[in-house]
Write a sequence for this structure.
């Protein structure tokens, strides 16, 4: 089967109804980097440290961003405005995802040291992580695109905080997409769409309840002004179309990552594996040694879906 035929077959499999669910045959991929040794044979300490580095980084920037809301000396009421902006919702979701990811990696690393076992089924904590990863990717891209195309005023200087939440957020997402071994599904577009829908409903309720921006305006963003539906409704429609399309783009980046890793690493991995008969002798394998199998998943099936 040629390359294009395999790509087309992979794309067709993505649209199976079962892919709406949070289920995957290789749950250990959520605990690994795409660029560590494959088949995945353990939870790596360096990858745990890597996840904690990102967690500390984003917590620090989120804290700085929150402290800067209205100025360092602003009261609680003024700082509460921090939570009305989509930018801050999206950045907080990145922060939460990284903390959860670091915690799960740490717990999994400690469990692996005790049992030398990788998960055989996708557990609740891995499902939570998968949801958070889906939530993070699309809103970050939307925030960056919407801010620089429709909201940014060139008169205002671009501060470090502004760059962090409107540029580096997307840079981080692209880095993470290239680093993690976590799979992606096109049909999971409903997860980030639900996140955006919750924010949309929040802005409507906030406006209807008389909420304002810090300077007294009724529209949180010029393109989300519920008093001017001729602007708001087209933006809402664009976001509705944007979600599944961008999920497809993100999935495409994920597939490129997998293909690059297979192309760069498959030959070396196969060359390093002894012949199957030699492996049987080394392991003294018989019917009672089937418990070894979860540690050596087949390299082709681990990333084919």
């Amino acid at each position: 089967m040629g390359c294009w035929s395999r790509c087309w077959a992979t794309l067709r499999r993505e649209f199976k109804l079962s892919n709406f669910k949070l289920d995957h045959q290789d749950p250990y991929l959520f605990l690994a980097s795409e660029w560590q040794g494959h088949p995945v044979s353990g939870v790596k300490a360096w990858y745990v440290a890597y996840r904690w580095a990102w967690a500390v980084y984003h917590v620090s920037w989120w804290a700085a961003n929150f402290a800067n809301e209205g100025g360092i000396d602003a009261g609680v009421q003024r700082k509460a405005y921090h939570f009305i902006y989509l930018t801050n919702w999206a950045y907080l979701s990145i922060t939460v995802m990284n903390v959860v990811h670091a915690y799960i990696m740490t717990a999994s690393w400690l469990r692996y040291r005790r049992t030398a076992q990788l998960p055989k089924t996708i557990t609740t904590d891995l499902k939570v992580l998968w949801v958070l990863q889906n939530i993070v990717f699309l809103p970050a891209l939307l925030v960056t695109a919407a801010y620089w195309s429709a909201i940014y005023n060139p008169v205002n200087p671009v501060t470090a905080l502004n760059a962090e939440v409107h540029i580096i957020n997307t840079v981080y997402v692209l880095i993470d997409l290239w680093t993690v071994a976590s799979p992606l599904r096109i049909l999971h577009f409903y997860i980030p769409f639900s996140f955006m829908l919750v924010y949309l409903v929040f802005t409507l309720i906030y406006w209807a309840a008389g909420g304002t921006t810090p300077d007294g305006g009724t529209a949180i963003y010029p393109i989300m002004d519920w008093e001017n539906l001729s602007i708001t409704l087209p933006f809402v429609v664009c976001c509705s179309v944007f979600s599944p399309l961008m999920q497809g783009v993100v999935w495409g980046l994920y597939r490129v990552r997998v293909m690059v890793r297979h192309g760069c690493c498959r030959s070396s991995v196969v060359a390093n594996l002894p012949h199957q008969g030699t492996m049987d002798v080394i392991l003294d394998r018989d019917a009672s040694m089937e418990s070894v199998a979860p540690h050596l998943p087949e390299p082709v099936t681990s990333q084919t879906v």
